[in-house]
Amino acid sequence: QVQLVESGGGLVQAGDSLRLSCAASGRTFSSYAMGWFRQAPGKEREFVAAISRSGGDTNYADSAKGRFTISRDNAKNTVYLQMNSLKPEDTAVYYCAADFRTGGKYGITSYQYNYWGQGTQVTVSS
């Protein structure tokens, strides 16, 4: 069992930055990959970014490339999502998730993830 708790969301203006954090507990953090997803009202949950167990490999959705950075600190059992140059279309609930699969570096679809946090709201005003 793994517990994931996101924090760092809020209301910002377009062009601002936010850093989301996701604290994990329950199992050895370095044994699973992590991802960030988001869901806007009326839309399906979508992949944002993923990071491998060691942190050496990352992957981003096209919408996040060049603006968002995923990182992890295995000593602190925490994964981060640094979001810069935020746009109104980034408004969504952001979720972190844990990928326990033994094959592959990380998942990029929601069904590849085993545990989810409760989400944190990010609202970007124009």
Note the topology.
Blueprint: E1 3-7, E2 10-13, E3 18-25, E4 33-39, E5 46-51, E6 58-60, E7 68-73, E8 78-83, E9 92-99, E10 115-116, E11 120-125
Parallel strand pairs: 2-11
Antiparallel strand pairs: 1-3, 3-8, 4-5, 4-9, 5-6, 7-8, 9-10, 9-11
Which short descriptors sum up this protein?
126 residues; mainly beta; 4-stranded antiparallel β-sheet
Q: Could you characterize what this model shows?
A:
- It contains no helices and eleven strands.
- The chain is mostly beta strands and 126 residues long.
- Strands 2, 4, 5, 6, 9, 10 and 11 form a seven-stranded mixed β-sheet that branches. A four-stranded antiparallel β-sheet has the order 1-3-8-7, with no helix packed on it.
- A hairpin with a 4-residue loop joins strand 7 and strand 8.
- It is globular.
- The N and C termini lie far apart (40 Å).
- The mean pLDDT is 96.
